């Protein structure tokens, strides 16, 4: 725990840690949704989809890493059990029950759009009080915006190849 890091945030610290923990749960769920989606996906141009899904999975895991460092710095504890991911998150988990490539892309686009709202809200919350968390949220948001666009571009490629 960073004593001074906590002190700087004053009474806001517990609220920020809670928001970071929820975002952390989102990232692990997003990671797994991408990872398992890449395994089960079926349909046209599936290799292009697999490559993109696996790249995004790696990004989501990196986001979880960034959030966990900040949570610990602020004296919090990231979820120590996967069951907590489902209890405290913002965006939920969409199991790829239908492995058709366009279905999987749509589920992940929905997830990215939720993540974009989450990091926008976190930036608004920390803008004045917590520049370090703000910066982390900005960096992650930039990736999520790119993810959304990548998936939409892939979807449009599929639609044009039909
Ligand atoms: Fe992410
Ligand atoms: Fe993402
Ligand atoms: Mg990408």
Distance between the termini: 54 Å
CATH superfamily: Ferritin, core subunit, four-helix bundle
Radius of gyration: 17 Å
Shape: elongated
- List low-confidence stretches: none
For the record, the count of structural domains works out to 1
Can you tell me the CATH class?
Answer: Mainly Alpha
Bound molecules: fe (iii) ion, magnesium ion
Topology, number of strands: 0
What does this structure look like?
The longest helix is centred in the C-terminal third of the chain and has 31 residues. The model has no long low-confidence stretch (mean pLDDT 96). This protein has a single domain, classed as Ferritin, core subunit, four-helix bundle (Ferritin, Up-down Bundle). The chain is elongated and about 55 Å long. It contains six helices and no strands. It is an all-alpha fold and 162 residues long. The chain starts with a helix and ends with a helix. Helix 2 runs antiparallel to helix 3, helix 2 packs antiparallel against helix 5 and helix 5 packs antiparallel against helix 6. The protein is 77% helix and 0% strand. One fe (iii) ion (FE) binds next to helix 2, helix 3 and helix 6.
């Amino acid at each position: 725990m960073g004593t001074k890091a906590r002190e700087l945030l004053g009474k806001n610290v517990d609220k920020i840690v809670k928001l970071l923990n929820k975002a952390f749960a989102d990232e692990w769920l997003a990671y797994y949704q991408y990872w398992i989606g890449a395994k089960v996906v079926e349909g046209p141009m599936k290799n292009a989809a697999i490559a993109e899904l696996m790249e995004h999975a790696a990004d989501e895991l990196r986001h979880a890493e960034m959030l966990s460092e900040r949570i610990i710095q602020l004296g919090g504890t990231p979820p120590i059990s996967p069951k907590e991911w489902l209890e405290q998150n913002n965006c939920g988990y969409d199991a790829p029950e239908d492995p058709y490539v366009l279905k999987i892309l749509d589920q992940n686009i929905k997830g990215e759009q939720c993540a974009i709202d989450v990091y926008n809200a976190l930036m608004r919350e920390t803008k004045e009080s917590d520049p370090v968390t703000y910066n982390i949220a900005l960096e992650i948001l930039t990736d999520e915006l790119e993810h959304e666009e990548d998936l939409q571009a892939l979807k449009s490629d599929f639609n044009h190849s039909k």
